[in-house]
Amino acid sequence: MSRPVFSFRPNPENPEHQRAWEILSSVPEGQKNLFLVRAILQEDLAQHLEKLIRKAVREELEGIRLEKALVLAGPGVLKQEVQKPEIPDQMLDFLSQIE
Q1: H helix count then E strand count, the chain
Q2: Which of 14, 52, 70, 88 has the highest Cβ tally under 10 A?
Q3: How far apart, in whole angstroms, are the C-alpha atoms of residue 43 and residue 46?
Q4: CA-based radius of gyration for the chain
Q5: How far apart are the C-alpha atoms of 48 and 46, rounded to whole Å?
Q6: Handedness of CA 64, 65, 66, 69 (dihedral sign)
Q7: What is the rounded average pLDDT of the residues 77-98?
Q8: What is the pLDDT of residues 28-75, one digit of tens each?
Q9: Rounded to an integer, what distance in angstroms lies between the CA atom of residue 75 and that of residue 63?
Q10: What gap in Å lies between CA 87 and CA 61, rounded to an integer?
Q11: pTM surpassing 0.70?
């Protein structure tokens, strides 16, 4: 079975491609595969961590909003009577920009 081959052809007009090529060019020969594997796995881990953070923030915000709604509604109101508000799109957009 032959190994898969990957080809990287950076676009010289794209600043991100230029920077990526500079970084990859600085990696010593014989270590480029290991470098690329680690970079890919690190990106995957970063995406996973972002999802976990988003989930935790959502849960905390829902808890805070629910507590605030109960306080504002008064002591005789049951939790089931208070609707859980949605997280604003602006906050989700802000969180998606944090990397």
Answers
A1: 3, 0
A2: 70
A3: 5
A4: 23
A5: 5
A6: positive
A7: 65
A8: 999 999 999 999 999 999 999 999 999 998 888 877 766 666 666 566
A9: 17
A10: 8
A11: no
The tokens of 88 are what? 């604003």
> How many whole angstroms separate alpha carbon 34 and alpha carbon 62?
42
Copy the structure tokens of residue 96: 């998606």
SS3 content of the chain, % helix, strand, coil (to 5): 65, 0, 35
Secondary structure element (H or E) that encloses residue 95, with its range: helix 89-97
* One-letter identity of residue 47: Q
**Spatial separation of the C-alpha atoms in residues 42 and 52, rounded to whole Å:** 15
Answer for the pair 85, 65: CB distance below 8 angstroms, yes or no: yes
Task: Count Cβ neighbours within 10 Å for each residue of 48-84 and write b for 16 or more, e otherwise.
Answer: eeeeeeeeeeeeeeeeebeeebeeeeeeeeeeeebee
